[in-house]
Amino acid sequence: MTDTDELLSIRAAELYYEENKTQDEIGTVLRLTRWKVGRLLAQAKASGFIRIEIVHPRARRLSIERRLRESTQLTDAIVVSSAGVSSDEELQSRTAQAAADYLTGLRPVPRTLGISWGRTLHEVSLHLAKGWANGVNVVQINGGVSLNRRAGTAAATAVTIAHKASGAATLLPSPAILERLDTKRAIEADRSVAAVLTLGAAASAYLFSAGQADRNSALVDSGYLTAEQVAELVRKGAVGDIVGRYIDSAGNIVDPELDGRTVGIQLEALRHAKTAIAVIAGGSKHSIARAVVGSGLCTVLVTDEDTALAVLGDDI
Amino acid sequence: MTDTDELLSIRAAELYYEENKTQDEIGTVLRLTRWKVGRLLAQAKASGFIRIEIVHPRARRLSIERRLRESTQLTDAIVVSSAGVSSDEELQSRTAQAAADYLTGLRPVPRTLGISWGRTLHEVSLHLAKGWANGVNVVQINGGVSLNRRAGTAAATAVTIAHKASGAATLLPSPAILERLDTKRAIEADRSVAAVLTLGAAASAYLFSAGQADRNSALVDSGYLTAEQVAELVRKGAVGDIVGRYIDSAGNIVDPELDGRTVGIQLEALRHAKTAIAVIAGGSKHSIARAVVGSGLCTVLVTDEDTALAVLGDDI
DNA sequence: GGTGATGTTGCTCGTGTGAGCATTTGCGCA
DNA sequence: TGCGCAAATGCTCACACGAGCAACATCACC
């Protein structure tokens, strides 16, 4: 009997959702009472036969957001739908848009916003509307001025975000990673750098992205690391980087020596921050997203549906 | 204003469809009146942002079926949903199932059912339930007894369909295509063959599939044609075959000489039949499906969603 | 075969929602 | 500035629908 009922529920669902018939009409067609039809439809829904998707670049997955808030220590989660998305680029664009939206609606409005840099953050800056806030000062929290032709992207990101909020941008005039520890100590000791780091460590909110640990990493692209060095980090357990610092799946620094040569705020500053917004999207960033959320590096996660499910452990 | 409205309609849709909130509740959250929310939802639906799919192996696409009935001369159309289908095999299986269902529900129950043979038809025979009808006699309408190890599939199909309907199967003891015209004439003249052909030409209903014109054709597979011969047929405009006869996109015989050596009922028998059910599924059969429907070779089409859209000319 | 437990069916009632209409708002144009 | 038109808004009404309940069928078990 259950088998016939299942088939009937499908026939009913077709008439209900595709043909917009009333349950009563469906009852007439299928020779059922109107209540039976209602129950069949409820059954079809409960069995997951009815899939309702909101196909729109700005659609979100509220149910996943709720699950994230409930099963992690995140105070907030923004999950963009991946319905109808083919490319990773589109996914990143959607996520960046969502991050811009979130930032715009953030209350209280941060006085100082600490930001990292990268493709994702840059896209966020472009998606922000002019006047998204009034008087937010932006400060870079990790090094990374131009080593290559990508010149100025990091700076442009900070300046754009600040400019669109009628605020000022404070840049961190330092490479991301230095070759020698004492050089790093020296540059950190420099007043112009130290002041920025102090400012960054005391920001009222943070906005940062994450990099995956592979040859496509932004740090490799920018010339701070070689593909081989990253491969070695992966061998040591690295899943990706946050503000230039490589972490393993437990959120721990993978290579203390390398980390010592990395310029930027400490991860602890993020861990203790009241508002730390991580923007992470794309299939290659599932592991790092998991590590970031799992180890409490952010209070807010802005991501795509698939990454969110990976964080929740729903994928296999 | 339209832009904000679009965004609002998405937010409303999320709350309505994902969170099962009432329009009134949504109004409270978004600071809108309950009527505005209703209008936003209607707008979201009208704009196609809300996609409702019935994910089930036996789900059909009634709207496409209706369009087919309206814009072609088909008396009936069965279109199975391709939602959640990954492989062509699954699509064919779903379509075969639907064909079996249709045949079971066919009224008046045919006294004699003319059938072709092939992978698809064989699958239909397997999907038919025992006792799907009572006393239907099955007759093969085109030649094709075993030339290779696939031995007996054609016969098995006919016998299975007949057996499950407590009827008898009449096999056509002839190859599909003969090498010489006079051999074909001779075999046709043989009483045992002629009787079957006469019976087949007078069947009360037909059930047949179609083959695509490429190297994967069943006729190539069975050894009746070489891949080169098929390629030559394609050059002449062939899009596929029906009951062993290759036709072009207009439904005309492509190669009269070859057709003269093909044993089976004439296409005209199908064109004039009261009930001619074509079962055609899979991405490679779009053209042949189009040709069959366009040239009136069937009165009923059982197919998959994508093929149906191709027949309607919705693809590009 | 009787009896209780469980699931199914038919129904009442209240609520959510869409159609249709009155009213207001916004906007172009004189 | 004022007028007229169109679009958006607020509302009434009717109705489709789900929750909850009573009656009934079904089945296991004594």
Automatic annotation (TrEMBL), chains A, B:
InterPro entries named in the record: NagB/RpiA_transferase-like, SorC_transcr_regulators, Sugar-bd_dom_put, WH-like_DNA-bd_sf
> What Pfam families does this protein's entry cite?
Sugar-bind
Q: Which residues form the signal peptide?
A: none
* Record-annotated Sugar-binding domain positions: 61-312
Q: Does the keyword Cytoplasm apply?
A: no
Going by the UniProt record, its keywords in alphabetical order are: DNA-binding, Transcription, Transcription regulation
Which terms in the Gene Ontology molecular function aspect does this entry carry? carbohydrate binding; DNA binding
The Swiss-Prot or TrEMBL record describes its family as follows: Belongs to the SorC transcriptional regulatory family.
Which PANTHER family does the annotation name?
TRANSCRIPTIONAL REGULATOR LSRR, TRANSCRIPTIONAL REGULATOR-RELATED
> What is the designated name of this protein?
Sugar-binding transcriptional regulator
Origin species, per record, is Cryobacterium cheniae
Q: What's the source species' lineage?
A: Bacteria, Bacillati, Actinomycetota, Actinomycetes, Micrococcales
